[in-house]
Amino acid sequence: MMSCKHPFDFFSPFGCIRVSGIWNFWNTQYTSESSDQETLMKKTFRELVIYLVFLIFVCIIAFGMASTNMYYYTKVMMDLFLDSESENHVSFRTVASAEDFWKFAEEPLLDGLYWDKWYNGDPLPPNTAGYIYYENRLLGVPRLRQLRVSTNSCTVNEEFETFISDCYAMYSEQNEDRNPFGRNVQDPNETAWVYQTQTELEGFSYWGKINAYSGGGFVKDLDLAKLRSQEYITYLKNSLWIQRGARALFVSFTVYNANINLFCVITLLVEFPATGGAIPSWSFNTVKLIRYVTTFDHFIMACEIIFVIFIAYYTVEEIIEIHVTGIKYFANLWNILDVGLVIISIMCIIFNIYRTSTIEAKLNDLLKDPLKYANFENLGFWEMRFNNTVAVTVFFAWVKIFKYISFNKTMTQLSTTLSRCAKDLLGFFIMFFIVFLAFTQLGYLLFGTQVQDFSTFMNSFFTLFRIILGDFNFYQLEQANRILGPIFFMLFVFFVFFVLINMFLAIINDTYSEVKSDMAKQTDLFIMSDYLKQGYGKIWDKLGTKREQLEDYEKILSTGKKMHFNDWKKQLLEQNFNEEEIEEVFAKYDIDGDRYLDPPEQQKMLAELQKLKTDLDATKKADANNFDDMLRDEDSDAEIEGGGDIVHSNEFLVLTRRVDRLESTLIGIVGNIES
After folding, report:
1. Other C-beta atoms lying within 10 Å of the C-beta of residue 651
2. H/E element holding 255?
3. What percent of the chain has pLDDT over 70?
4. Is position 594 annotated in a ligand binding site?
5. What is the pLDDT of residues 342-401, one digit of tens each?
6. CA 20 from chain center: how many Å?
7. Is 592 annotated as a binding residue?
8. What span, in angstroms and rounded, lies between the C-alpha atoms of 324 and 311?
9. Which is it for the CA torsion 408, 410, 416, 419, positive or negative?
């Protein structure tokens, strides 16, 4: 089979087809045929400029989605529904039993959901009904949902079977009770006693503190009126809706604030573990589901369109680079990061389209039936995951800048040090995690029944990380076990903190010293700072040439006599000016068109030439100051690294110009020889 060797050759039935023209726009350092360092640096610099523009749009979109109003909105809702207390001083945070939940539901929950009076007791006007804090519209009606487990879903020990007849296991979907219960026979039309599947409720799984729960269950929707909702809660309480076998109770509703265009999807969960009691948890997802309302929102939409164009550009670039380099492309960590960023960005674009279409459909359904439960749980959950993904994308997008930067030796030393000590670090981390996991299991088994920080394996794992950072509670360990607690603590600090952590630092320090020594000995490569210096030198050469031309003009005009165009042209041709420049300048100042430069016209030209010289000197001086600062930093690095002599910036520029002139002369000589 024929293979195409050129990076932009693609195989077809008609042979290799070279794709050029616009495809050269994606000609990067990986697809370039040139091995010249300066050429590769130019391509890298072009990639950096394009990527910085892309990063600006990414940041605009990301921070345009976020707002400090989200925090205050979440805080207001949490203070209202978590910290408001009943007459018996029960808040949602302090719910510890089914009885506490009903006390919370009858007072703080209903008072928070239904605001039918002003603070002075006057009734609210009809058009403000259904608002929380007079500003936040309650969408639809709140919903209560319960999950239960079946009777005898666990096995009772034979020795206790005679006086323990029922057994209710921890929650799992296999143990879930889907049979009607309670007052189902007396109230056959009441949904609270009949199980509905996750598909029927359009629900989704929820992860609580103890278990993950399905989206089905026994459901009771409240009403838009406070009195009616109070009757429902009283009915459920008196009918013993929460019985043995109840494992989770959800209170779900959504509010919308039009002032700041934000939704708050609220879920209050009370888990009833098999041990008895109740464990409360909650979720407040403040999200912006309606994206494009204000002028700034439409500006963000325009930035999103540009973002899509950038992603299309980078997608083509990655495909071309993979086509050129093959499987070797994925040997570079930066290339894997590039592909990951493109994939994550495409997923975000797809979700953005899905969210925009879904929210419109849900709002239309809600407007048709205001008494319907507004199910925004699924959308709110994925919107939060979307926001998290965007945050991670922005983080890695900033990290990716290191791929292009090689301004000085410090950057090169950092990357070289990490790559060179990678194998040593891998071996160290294997040893570290063996020791660390051993202490994790020891802490979980010793203190898991008494200390909350060690109550689960994951809690024990993160608690030991906190001990490394100095965040620990030694008194709890000592109280849990007066002998093994202090021994465990001292052994962990000695082996992990004093031994392993110092081994890690020793590996980094030794490798850094080796890299620093090697870089001091090797010949300097052409890095991006050299490319920028060369660009500055060329600019200064152009400024110097232009100033010499102005001085030549002044010499010719210094006689003060009336000058004909032919005399003007003859003298300037001797100064190596081209005829177009001579004609252009003469026509500009020959105001009367008589092909002579009169003394007044010459004076005007001299004045403008002097002004141009002054501007050029000022520009050159400003650039020289900036360039001197950059060179001074490079000189400092050179002095530290090599300890040799320092070349002053002015001497460096003189040498650079001499090399450029020598190069031009050699090019001319070679051309003559070839001719």
Report:
1. 10
2. strand 246-257
3. 70
4. yes
5. 999 999 999 888 888 888 787 887 777 778 898 888 888 888 888 899 999 999 999 888
6. 35
7. yes
8. 20
9. negative
